[in-house]
Amino acid sequence: MDKSSLRKELGLFHATMLGIGGSLSAGNFVILGHAAGLAGSSIVMVVFVCGIISLLTMLSYCELGTAIPRAGSEYTFAKVAYGGIVAFITGWFEWLSNMFYAALSSLGFAYIISYFIPINISLIAILMVVIFTLINVRGVEEVGITESILTIIVLAILTIYVWTGWSSSLGMDTIKLSAPGGLLGTIAATAYLFELYLGAEAIAVAQSEIRNPEKTIPRAMLLSSGALIAMYTAIVYVAVRIVPPEILSEKASPIAFVAEQTMGTLGAVLVTIAIAIAGLAALNEAIMAQSRIIYALSRDGYFPKVFLKVHKRFGTPYVAVIVTSIFTIAMTATELVNFVVYAVNLGFFIGFCLVNLSLIKLRRKKPLLERPFKAPLYPLTPIAGIVTSLMLLAFIDVGVLTLGVELIILALLAYHIRMVGYHRIRIAFGGISLGIGGFTMLLAYLIRTGFIALPGMLSQWETILFYGLVFVSAIYVLAGVLNITAEA
Fold first, then answer.
1. Superfamily assignment of 12-420 in CATH?
2. Tens digits of per-residue pLDDT, 83-105?
3. Which of 36, 238, 340, 420 could form a disulfide with 245 if both were Cys (CB 3.0 to 4.6 A apart)?
């Protein structure tokens, strides 16, 4: 096992930019149109409420991140609180959610660019994944600097968009509240848009690489969460004030369309560039996050130890970065944006519930654990985080929920294989092989002695069938013996 450790290179500024940049995904701006069709002008309220719901759980992240500043985020919290299968499932879904989020960010970038330039969506999206995989291999310092620069550019351009849109709308009538789908449609839009704020948890994922984590983690999380709530709410408010929600729902890039109405073609191009850059920043964060989760799972023996290899020069888990990006590329190639959005939210709803449960468990299990930051209004905030996450989970797409059940089954299988151990699995397979080999030999004997009569034309192939069964039997017996006698 590689004894190298991850470097602590992220300060408050870079950590805050990591949280903001991770949430300002290009995919988020693409899906606003679909959400406007679900919620109407009440999408402004939906975006604000999503931010508050996310903030409830961010408070739990702040406390746990300062008390347990190790790589792995949600997984590490659940491991300390519960251990075993709960911890593994938490890490499993955390990894999958970040993989889907990386795919959404790269696809969002490609779709935004296609608003002005005809391109091959999947090809460009995959190319971006490859480029930012290489950036992540080079090191977290480069990741932090890259993230900060991209985020500052995006925030500056979006601020211009909000200011220009606000100025243009001063003489317009006030927004008329509408909700085409009623209360259920509004809740469905909330479940759909929840991932707008998910990048902020990247701060917790990178907590083992943050300097002075006791102070930096809660400050960065709260700063990024507040900035995101203000920014998203202002962006959506300007959008529905300028363009009716039913028209926004028909646009591939609704924010660029709004910018075109208030700032002209040049403004639309500028906003498109900003959103495209946001997609790259979020992709950057998601690739880093998923690799750190795999690193933590491997550290505890759930995944192969090869993922623990840290680059001697760059100090990054380069194997984990590369392998997880391969899965991201596979999902990116599908171009299924809405499916990916719900898949992201599914994993994080489950993860948020388990983070809040971990906070409650550790308050009881380890009351003397040093906590530089304590979640206010405990236990109301973690309970509210759990209840809202479970409520929104009920509005996830049925196909994605089905996928979630299948992924849980796969996770259980992977976990129990790990718990049984490699040598015991070989013994089990060896016994199965011996059983199959013995049964095949018995079948060959019964056919040869005529106890089993072959029907029709098969009787002409009796000799060939007999020797074929003998050969198969010998292979299985040999495999059984080798597995059983192999050293641990």
1. Amino acid/polyamine transporter I (1.20.1740.10)
2. 878 888 888 888 888 888 888 88
3. 36
User: Which residues have CB under 8 Å from 471's CB, separation 6+?
Assistant: none
What is the residue-wise DSSP string for 53-98?
HHHHHHHHHHHHHHHS-STTTHHHHHHHHT-HHHHHHHHHHHHHHH
pLDDT tens track for 295-354: 878 877 777 777 877 777 777 777 888 888 888 888 888 777 888 888 888 888 888 899
Alpha-carbon distance of 91 to 71, in angstroms, equals: 11
| Contacting residues for 439 by C-beta, under 8 A, at least 6 apart | none
CA distances from 3 to 264, 302, 320, 385, 462 (A): 56, 18, 16, 37, 61
User: b/e map of 210-244 (b: 16 or more CB within 10 Å)?
Assistant: beebeebbbbbbbbbbebbbebbbbbbbbbbbbbe
Q: Is residue 380's pLDDT more than 90?
A: yes
Q: What is the pLDDT of residues 431-476, one digit of tens each?
A: 677 778 777 887 777 777 766 666 665 566 777 777 888 888 888 8
What is the CB-side half-sphere exposure of residue 272 using CA atoms within 13 A? Answer: 21
Report d(CA 268, CA 189) in Å as an integer: 26
Q: Domain ranges for the chain, please list them.
A: 12-420, 423-485
